[in-house]
Q: What sequence folds into this?
């Protein structure tokens, strides 16, 4: 059986100035040690304005925290006022970029097509996308969760060469669980993640599907991370509110699956 290394990625969203960011990362680094990094890939995704200060803190303190970004444009350069290119991120040693977060889809009009272009642009610069998928409360109540996530997955992965697909990470984030304090039950989250993995298995095969890391996101906190991580399909967390405090995020990284 393939062993998938767990990943805990903190999505800071629109929080922390570049100065606060330095303190947060230093505190997190102080809390974690080599054992933690060996067990879990630890990723922080600060806002664009804090990427540079976080990068220099990680380098200066020789931390094994990995750098992620929350979004990017699909072009490498050009007349796109206010946008950030994947090349700019790669140059800052960013390793992961969140694409298709539900907040970007819902509040900023990102379509499946735009998400697919961003995913390809991220891969083209050698970084790894963290592709977010998930259903609304209404879709869940109508019983269309599986159809929704399968559609989002298909739109993003269609026609992707295998070696690119193999560098992707997926995050299942039910929209009704984001920022609400109400996480999906571990079994529910596990079931939907299995639907995603099995759907990709059909197109891309067992070896790919068994190696793909699929994270859960939506009100992950120190108090529920262990029960989520005890589920066989859940390979990590994409953490919002609870990652802003380095002690809480440290406790999440140091979860014990019991
Ligand atoms: P919360 O952990 O605040 O629910 O946010 C989850 C999320 O959207 C991570 O990307």
A:
């Amino acid at each position: 059986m393939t062993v998938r290394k767990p990943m805990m990625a903190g999505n800071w969203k629109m929080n922390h100035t570049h100065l606060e960011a330095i303190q947060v990362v230093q505190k997190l680094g102080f809390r974690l040690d080599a054992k933690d990094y060996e067990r879990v890939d630890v990723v922080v995704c600060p806002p664009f304005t804090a990427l540079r200060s976080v990068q220099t803190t990680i380098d200066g303190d020789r931390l094994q925290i990995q750098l992620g970004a929350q979004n990017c444009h699909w072009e490498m350069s050009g007349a796109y006022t206010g946008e950030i290119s994947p090349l700019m991120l790669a140059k800052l040693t960013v390793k992961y970029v969140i694409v298709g977060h539900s907040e970007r889809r819902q509040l900023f009009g990102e379509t499946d097509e735009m998400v697919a272009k961003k995913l390809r642009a991220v891969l083209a610069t050698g970084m790894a996308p963290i592709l977010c998928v998930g259903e609304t409360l209404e879709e869940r109540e109508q019983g269309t969760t599986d159809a929704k996530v399968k559609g989002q997955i298909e739109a993003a992965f269609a026609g992707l060469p295998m070696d690119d697909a193999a560098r992707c990470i997926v995050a299942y984030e039910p929209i009704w669980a984001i920022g609400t304090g109400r996480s999906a039950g571990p079994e529910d989250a596990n079931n939907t993640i299995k639907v995603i993995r099995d759907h990709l298995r059909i197109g891309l095969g067992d070896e790919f599907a068994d190696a793909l890391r699929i994270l859960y996101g939506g009100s992950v906190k120190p108090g529920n991370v262990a029960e989520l991580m005890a589920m066989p399909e859940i390979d990590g967390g994409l953490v919002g509110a609870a990652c802003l405090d380095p002690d809480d995020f440290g406790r999440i990284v140091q979860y014990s699956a019991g």
Observations:
- Residues 243 and 249 are 5 Å apart (CA to CA).
- The domain at 7-253 is CATH 3.20.20.70 (TIM Barrel).
- The chain has one domain: 7-253.
